[in-house]
């Protein structure tokens, strides 16, 4: 079932109610909306999604799976993309974050060795007719609620998500240029064999602005 087909078949008020309950757990009290406001917001989201012209499926299907929070150890439902070209690294190899991995390691940056990819930055028009794969123990209604929540993390419209992505990528490129041009602060490794930490000047400036405005 594609996302479009799911939106046309599920009980949307129930979907909105599930999103509302999720927001109560994840949003600061001062930013919480009423159920009615949640319904109105997501009605507009669904209307825009269903207005998108029919398109071919995205290169990777939606994946709704169960993950474990590394800090709290609690399980939660996660939405991402499933890599159909995934190739598991050879048994016994350790992950290596760079090119030319040493013997006994594999390059974790190769797309083929990543089973899942983040979905938040992808334009809505590209994923409305993409199939949904459910690995978590949940209903299609719950899956749709999780997908809609994930899709609106960076904005309430396709255009606003696009603008946010461009803003974030601009900051990433600025940080890369800082490192390339030697504009950064380097912190020594905390222990022998550890990694040095490089903080681009643009990142330091952003942190100071956040602290100054808090």
Please describe what this structure looks like.
This protein has about 210 residues and is an alpha/beta fold. The chain has two domains: about 160 residues, no CATH class; about 50 residues, no CATH class. It has seven helices and eight strands. A hairpin with a 6-residue loop joins strand 1 and strand 2. Helix 2 crosses helix 3 and helix 2 crosses helix 5.
Low-confidence stretches: none
Number of domains: 2
Number of helices: 7
* Helical residue percent band: 40-55%
Q: How many β-strand runs?
A: 8
Output the helix-strand order.
Answer: HHHEEEEEHEHHEEH
**Residues in β-strands, percent:** 15-25%
- Mean residue pLDDT: 91
Radius of gyration of CA atoms, rounded to a whole number: 20 Å
Shape: globular
Label the structural class.
Answer: alpha/beta
In spatial order, strands of the major sheet run 5-2-1-6
Distance between the termini: 45 Å
Largest sheet: 4 strands, mixed
Element layout with pairings:
Blueprint: H1 3-9, H2 12-26, H3 35-51, E1 62-68, E2 75-82, E3 94-96, E4 105-107, E5 116-117, H4 124-127, E6 132-134, H5 140-151, H6 158-180, E7 184-187, E8 197-200, H7 201-213
Parallel strand pairs: 1-6, 3-4
Antiparallel strand pairs: 1-2, 2-5, 7-8
Q: What's a concise summary of this model?
A:
The protein is an alpha/beta fold and 214 residues long.
Keywords:
7 helices, about 45% helix, about 210 residues, four-stranded mixed beta sheet, two-stranded parallel sheet, alpha/beta
């Amino acid at each position: 079932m594609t996302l479009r087909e799911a939106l046309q078949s599920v009980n949307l008020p129930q979907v909105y109610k599930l999103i509302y309950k999720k927001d109560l757990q994840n949003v600061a009290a001062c930013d919480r909306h009423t159920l009615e406001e949640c319904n109105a917001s997501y009605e507009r989201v669904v209307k825009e999604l269903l207005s998108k012209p029919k398109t071919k499926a995205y290169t990777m299907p939606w994946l709704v799976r169960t993950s474990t929070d590394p800090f709290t150890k609690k399980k939660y439902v996660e939405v991402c993309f499933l890599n159909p070209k995934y190739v598991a690294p050879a048994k016994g190899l350790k992950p290596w974050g760079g090119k030319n991995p040493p013997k006994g390691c594999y390059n974790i940056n190769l797309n083929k060795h990543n089973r899942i990819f983040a979905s938040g930055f992808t334009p809505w028009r590209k994923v409305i007719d993409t199939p949904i794969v459910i690995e978590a123990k949940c209903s299609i209604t719950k899956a749709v609620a999780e997908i809609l929540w994930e899709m609106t993390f960076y904005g309430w419209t396709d255009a606003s998500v696009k603008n946010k992505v461009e803003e974030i990528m601009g900051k990433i490129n600025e940080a890369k240029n800082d490192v390339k041009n030697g504009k950064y602060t380097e912190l020594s490794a905390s222990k022998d064999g550890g990694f040095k930490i490089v903080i681009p000047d643009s990142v330091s400036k952003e942190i100071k602005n956040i602290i100054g405005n808090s």
